[in-house]
Amino acid sequence: MRVSLPHSLGREEVRRRMHAHAHEIGSYFPPGMATVETEWPNEDRMDLFITAAGQQIEGGIDVGDDTVTIEMDLPAMLGFLRGTLERAVKKHGGRLLEKK
Fold first, then answer.
1. Pairwise CA distance, residues 91 & 93, whole Å
2. What pLDDT score does 70 carry?
3. For 2-54, where are the E strands, in sequence order?
4. Do the Cβ atoms of 37 and 52 come closer than 8 Å?
């Protein structure tokens, strides 16, 4: 699954906001449904490790000059949720970028 979110904040500001609010990603799931771990292998990439409904989901967020790209490798068992997850990522990813 791949979702791109356009922005006009500039790369540095997006990085700052992502670092400041990455801990909130887990709260976008219903309470107790998922755990989220993040890691920054470089300044423009945040890796995501999500456990939801007993399934492991790996992905990442790539910060660009005018776009943030969120990718997640959905296990086959969760493939039926793809559309729902894409909508949620767009909604909450946009909120994450709006926070100062």
1. 6
2. 93
3. 2-6, 34-42, 45-52
4. no
